[in-house]
Amino acid sequence: MKRILDCHASDFKNMTKEELLFAIAAGEGRTIACETIGCIMPMLGDITNAEFAAAMGADILLLNMFDVKKPYIMGLPKTEPENTVWKLKELTGRPIGINLEPVEQQKAVSEGMWAMTEGRMATLENARLAAQMGVNFILLTGNPGNGVTNKAITETLSLYKKELGDKLVLAAGKMHASGILAEAGEKILTKEDIKEFYEAGADIILMPAPGTVPGITMEYVRELVSYAHSLGALTITAIGTSQEGADVATMREIALMCKMTGTDIHHLGDSGYGGMALPENIQSYSIAIRGIRHTYRRMADSILR
Q1: CA-to-CA distance for 55 and 92, rounded, in angstroms?
Q2: Which of 14, 41, 238, 284 is the most buried (most CB within 10 A)?
Q3: All domains of the chain, ordered by start, with CATH?
Q4: Which residues pair with 266 in a beta bridge?
Q5: What are the two backbone dihedrals, phi and then psi, of residue 89, each rounded to the nearest 5 degrees?
Q6: CA distances from 5 to 27, 251, 297 (A)
Q7: Percent of all residues in the chain with a pLDDT value above 70, rounded to a whole number
């Protein structure tokens, strides 16, 4: 098995769940996951945001706002809806995950583009559809104001683990309060939450990156990462507070703080101007955590290899 730094598109195409998790762990904190939105106009017009993020150095692509019952990504060449993810994997040569949200309906207050749709809910039916569509992993989390609680995440993990745990990588956590003020700041994620997520079936625990949420320091996240690793889980530190659209110097500072926490995966959110992180920030973040050689190698690596 290979570390993710050495993987080509052909490696990703045939990877099992266990091989992907090994590749990430073997990368020793040098894996970048970029979140993109496909239901709004791409930054480059006729090229998907996911392709753009991959070109700038992303190892893993995470689709936010992706409705498995109405699959659509702007900029993607015409294809059958059920083949949307397969086509994107063909064009990018990357593993692909999606966000599903364990929403408690009475707490969902988002409107406009963030408003919940049936195909984005973390139901078992939607998870099965995602697996059939070629998704490599599911992240259980919440978009702004959608009322996703840690309790709901735990309950959904248990269901998914039983039905799909041998097929899909399961990740879980929150990068901001997601509309639950009782779970804001340092209460977004605790050791107790991590233990519950892991025991319920999470392979990867997601938590806010240091400096992205009030009260979330490098020392605090370091403690959570160490605890998750002690249980046997991998971790993602996530920038989900629009700072993926900040200046390059801020990106480098967050990147090095995340590196010092010991995290396995570095997540950059989908809000540069809107739809993906600023491309220069993806590249600068990558250079900060793995240097020019590995950054340019990922950028240059042909999908035909």
Answers
A1: 8
A2: 238
A3: 28-300 (3.20.20.70)
A4: 32, 237
A5: -65, -35
A6: 6, 21, 9
A7: 91
Per-residue pLDDT tens for 109-168?
A: 556 666 788 999 999 999 999 999 999 999 999 876 666 788 999 999 999 999 998 999
Characterize 53-87 residue by residue with b for buried, 16 or more Cβ atoms within 10 angstroms of its Cβ, and e for exposed. Answer: bbbbbbbbbbbbbbbbeebebbbbeeeeeeebbeb
Rounded Cα distance, 134 and 95, in Å = 9
pTM, rounded to two decimals: 0.94
DSSP the chain: ---GGG--HHHHHT--HHHHHHHHHHT-S-EEEEEEESSS--TTSSS-HHHHHHHTT-SEEEEES--TTS---TTPPS--GGGHHHHHHHHH-S-EEEEEB-B-GGG----GGGS--GGGB--HHHHHHHHHTT--EEEE---TTS-B-HHHHHHHHHHHHHHHTTTSEEEEE-SS-TT-GGG-GGGSS-HHHHHHHHHHT-SEEEEEPTTSSTT--HHHHHHHHHHHHHHT-EEEEEE-SSGGGS-HHHHHHHHHHHHHHT-SEEEE-STTTTSS--HHHHHHHHHHHHHHHHHHHHHH--TT-
